[in-house]
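Case study.
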Amino acid sequence: MQELKDRIRKDGIVKDGSVLKVDKFLNHQIDAKLLKHIAEEYKRRFEGEEITKILTIEASGIAIAIMVALEFDVPLVFAKKNKTKNIAGSVYTTPVESFTHGTTYDIIVSKDFLKPEDKVLIIDDFLANGKALQGLITLVKAAGAEIVGAGVVIEKGFQPGGDFIRNEMGVRLESLAIVESMTVEGGVVFKE
Amino acid sequence: MQELKDRIRKDGIVKDGSVLKVDKFLNHQIDAKLLKHIAEEYKRRFEGEEITKILTIEASGIAIAIMVALEFDVPLVFAKKNKTKNIAGSVYTTPVESFTHGTTYDIIVSKDFLKPEDKVLIIDDFLANGKALQGLITLVKAAGAEIVGAGVVIEKGFQPGGDFIRNEMGVRLESLAIVESMTVEGGVVFKE
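After joint prediction, the assembly is written out as follows.
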């Protein structure tokens, strides 16, 4: 997606060779109009597919996913990272390893909101090692629902997460910008 | 806002007399179209005001706030609840007491995204004791920016948060549904 790649080149900041900061427009300050265009792009890419639900994970995935939900006219469900008092009843849950924070956390979705008849499009902002996305796939499978595909805004193509999900898990994965390499000096090179 | 009140009556669940669960349409599963209508309602209520930025707090505020940001055609900034590796540099921060979780956490916004010239509309899903909203107001004031107002989807009118923000803090607060009282048996009574 050209508009996204242009924006990453303009406003993304590469730190330490492996961290790509996009918090000027994607995950701290957020450009709503860019997200609308991202949602329209997913609508084009998954045209003709039957989708009944969008699934994402808190927090920064939510902004993108709600725009996609509006575009497809279906509900959004977001997985929570820790069980709160306010989720009562039965849940689907699985542990996810976080490289950013060096911890493992549980992700949780109420059984009320993922049903065997659901056809789910999973949306997230970033894909690196792919652990969060794998966790979401696990929840959908636990519910007996169908995974139509996954849409990721930025994929770090030099980390193994994306290929594992495509090849080993057999999930259709649409990344709108795949970073092939990046350096502090040279910036970002996208896979074409 | 009638559509919202109708939806709360239909799908909201009162637990233990003081917990109002709206996770079927507002903060776990989310109805994107309802959120669009909510954003349009804020646009009407703050018509004629100059607004340069929407501010909310992760996680469930984000879905509503990004819709509002799209409606006003300005960026959204969301305060984070814990400092992550990926927020470098200077931040505004303040502690917030959580009654839901019985803990205190810090909320954080990068100084890059709140400037003295900003005119900020704060958006959140719930207002009860008002501590999260007060925290957001503190961050805006720390930045030297102007608070145009605050928009809350559901206010628990029987808790003191809303009146404190209106009367003691002098902030224009627009709540789309104010719960006057609620019981497990009788459901929700709204303030008219």
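Observations recorded in class. The CA atoms of residues 87 and 149 of chain A lie 27 Å apart. The mean pLDDT of chain A is 94. We will return to this complex in the next lecture.
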